[in-house]
Each structure stands twice: as structure tokens, then as C-alpha cells.
Amino acid sequence: MSFNDLPLQARPREKLMAQGPGALADAELLALLLRTGLPGKNVLQLAHELLEGFGGLNGLLHAGLEDLKRIKGLGGSAKRSNLAAVLELARRAVAQRLRERALFESPEAVKHYVQLQLASRPHEVFAALFLDAQHRLIALEELFRGTLTQTSVYPREVVSRALHHHAAAVILAHNHPSGCVEPSRADESLTQTLRAALALIDVRVLDHVIVAPGQSLSMAERGLI
Questions:
Q1: What does DSSP say about strands 169-175 and 204-212: parallel, antiparallel, or unpaired?
Q2: Residues near 117 by beta carbon (within 8 Å), at least 6 away in sequence
Q3: For the segment 61-103, what is each residue's pLDDT rounded down to a tens digit?
């Protein structure tokens, strides 16, 4: 069922053209991307169910291709590719804003950005965010991957990449696919090891952020750095 099957007053495209995109609800904007629904379910209903399934727009923004594939109605490649492309554009827009402004002085900005990048990964990933002297983002690099429970992180490699980027500061980050963002003893020990290693080249570790779907934790906010 497409937009043409909807009553005129319920058609998002006409509403957008008449009132502007700000007048549309999240489901209406999403319906414009999906374009068509399913047999017995119009496109707005499909959009509502998609948002509910991911816990709202923020949850959907963290979804990966495999997450979208599991949703009935998104099994085909066309809808998934269109939606994945828009979600990636949104992630890149956030990254660009962070490169232009010193937003990493705010732990909330850091946690939000790291969630977008890592939270939906099915395996554990350790990353480093390299910052300039004004705490603007130079680059985010995924340095190590592990199993669901363990990642091997080599301080020498982190130091090498910090030197490569001429970074003045670093924010460490990794995900917990288990869903619990509480730092383990190993997380705390690794953080202190990397702080000591990076201090030798005069690079500060500002934070270590742990994320999971729908959750995030700043070790700096916890007083662990």
C-alpha cells in the first residue's frame, strides 16, 4: 500500500510540501523513505511499527543493515539500502559537526557519537577518537576487534596512531554487545595502562566511553579517569 492508498489529509508528501518538513512526525518522515507498505498494512503503519521496534528514532539511527533485514517489510534490498543510506548520512553529519566544534568537552556529545558508531556492533570493538588541541575530532579509528567477551588491545598501536594523527588528546571507546555498560576491572586496568603509555608522548586521555544498544557510560563522569 503506497501513499496513493492513503486519505489525502494523511499523505506525508503533500503535508511536507504544504507545511514544510518540520510539520511532519517521525513516522511520516520515515514513511516518505519507505514509500510503500505491505499487503494489509499501509506505509504509515509500517513506519510506526519500525520506530516502535527500535525504540524510536534514536534507536533506529543506531541500526545496522542486519538489524533492518530482520524487520518484516525490509527484507528486500531497495528499502533497506535507501534507509541505510539516510542513516549513514545522519551519522556523517554528526561527525562533521564534531570536527568543526569542540563538542568533546561535553561527555554527552561524546557518548552520543560513540553510540552512533559502535553500539549496534554484534562483536566487541575498541576504538580511539583522536582530537586536536581544541578537542575537535581529527579521526575515529577502530583499532581492535574481539569476541563478544574479550578484545586484545595493544598500547603500542594506540600510541602509534596518536603520533600519526598528531593528536593532542584521545578518547577511548568500546562497546559491550552483552548490553551492560558497567566497566569491568579489565576495562579500568586497560584505561590506566593506555593513559600511562600516551602520557609518554604528551597525549591526554580525556575519557573512556562504553556503549551498548540504548546505553552509554563515561568513565570520566564516574571519576575513573
A1: parallel
A2: 91, 127, 140, 173
A3: 777 777 777 777 665 667 778 778 887 887 777 777 766 665 5
